[in-house]
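Structure representation:
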Amino acid sequence: MKIVILADTATPEQRNAITTFVKNQNAGYWHWFADAWIIDTDSDINLSSWRDAIRDATSSGLHFLLFSFSEVENWAAFGNTKSFEWIHRHLKQ
């Protein structure tokens, strides 16, 4: 399962809280854009539980969105090619 977390103008402390939460889930993740995380996990995830845990960890009214998907049909990007290596490995087209 793949999960995307998008935050709306998170503070550095809120970003760190989300990253720490994701790291503690023992899943692979991509976080090269300030307010975006892509997670790759074999676990069956309850997004409502993740939402509640992230809300509690950030604790200051941060607005964010989580969604999951199983396959990537297509993607394209522009930027530092090193930043997209993880995506090439984990989000195969």
The longest helix spans residues 12-23.
